[in-house]
Known about the structure:
8-stranded mixed sheet
Amino acid sequence: MASPLSDPSQSTLQTVAVVGLGTMGTGIAEVLAKAGRTVVGIDISESQAAKCVATLEASTARGVERGRLTEQERAEILGRVRTSADLRTAADADLVIEVAPESYEIKHQIFRELDGIVRPETILATGTNALSVTRLAADSSRPERVLGLHFFNPAPAMKLVEVVSSVLTAPAAVTAVTDLALDLGKEPVAVGDRPGFVADGLLFGYLNQAAAMYEAKYASREDIDAAMRLGCGLPMGPLALLDLIGVDTARTVLEAMYAASRDRLHAPAPILKQLSEAGLTGRKAGRGFYTYEAPGSAVVVRDALTPLEGSDLVPGREIRSVGVAGSGTMASGIAEVFAKAGYEVVIAARSAEKAQTAKARIGKSLSRSVDKGRMTAEAAAETLDRITASGTYEDFGGVDLAVEAVAEDLEVKRQLFATLDKVCKPGAILATTTSSLPVVACARATSRPQDVIGMHFFNPAPAMKLVEVVRTVLTADDVHATVREVCGRIRKHPVDCGDRAGFIVNALLFPYLNNAIKMVEEHYASLDDIDAAMKLGGGYPMGPFELLDVVGLDVSLAIEKVLHREFRDPGLAPAPLLEHLVAAGCLGRKTGRGFREYAKR
């Protein structure tokens, strides 16, 4: 038989042993068997091996029920899988994939035993996402055949596979497993050996920051999770995801990352240790950040930390009319949202022409909604009629709520709030849409700081469901209650947060984006591989570099500078590559070039 190392082009790695038949090992076995490989599943626990077979039987039965498999195909798949408790049954394997618990001792023992069992040309792959592949390879008698093969959970559904090379790995071994991954219908990404690799290296830093944010009581677990789902389009919030992954697993990965990087952003938040040591490791234990119906259940049940419905007993103020200050995309989007909800709206800008342009933009947006069948032409016309365009803020005299959406410049906003203070009637609420500046600084520019609050909408405002409601230490309770009630009326989801840089979404999003840039700076992975890893492995709607170019590199740099100034953490310092691109005028899609180049419109 051809050697996988000597002639990878001829190798199809037909027989594969999977060591460790937990959820991941079982999923990998299913993927291999469906792709026509002979699979030897090995686990020291006979009950775990039996569970693996039962899972495969159930999964393939569902495939038949849904018309994806015939009964004959199902029988062939199940016939390709045999299980054993004896590692020696891997003797004939072309490839061994180890997915045992994340422990050097356990993995070392498996690799040492395999050295005396498998053929010299057999490739040994570890499924670790936290431990050093190089360290495992160094203890093998043939380190050139050892590499990492990191699947993502659930393996049958997730497309990403990270192929991890150490400095000792033979290129032929990498080629052989890369070809196998492609044959399995996966999208392999080649990465070097560092804790977390690409996807988890970026993901776990973000999860750690979310845990620290919750631990600091800055925001509730529900609001943190809702903010990241609705504000970033993520499939799960970070705390719910930590419960799914396992709090103990996350802590292990972060410990390995911190040992390698010494970056404080990777130092596990103390709450991860507390929950782990208390046995509150997430879904598998029935309790972690949330409480579940039973161990292993995905159903969240009420506990002592669950907020009560309608618990805000403070009566709010009556809001009938709204003023929106600004003429850009955000201002017109917010005006559209309020008008659709039935409010009388005044959109005011520095000139009547700018205000009319903003109203015309709203008209085009409403026309698109009519064309797509989302609203009737009559409803669109009524919505537009509720909007008055004005070239002076004096027309805000009768509004109950004034929302500013002007340039993200503190002095500009302070001057505007001083003007609003003069023209708006007593009792009117003054809101800022800032994403990174201190709300209290806007409040202090007025004689009524108790009436000032943050309402951070997300772009495009008509489509995005999230509003971060930012109260300062001076904001009145009834103002806070009013804004939350208004969010409900305009069909937005409010999340509460305090007046500090980045609020929830940007404080968690931009350190993640910054770390992605650092990976490129260090030549660890390419833009395309990082974007692919986060979309395929993390379920992100856009890769970090796609998102940076859409947001604008100048905007991103400004937010990262604000976060660095606020928290003084060296790990938050903007990546030099980002600063260089901004200095060169490469600001993303709007200039035709950022991290990538774009065709001119």
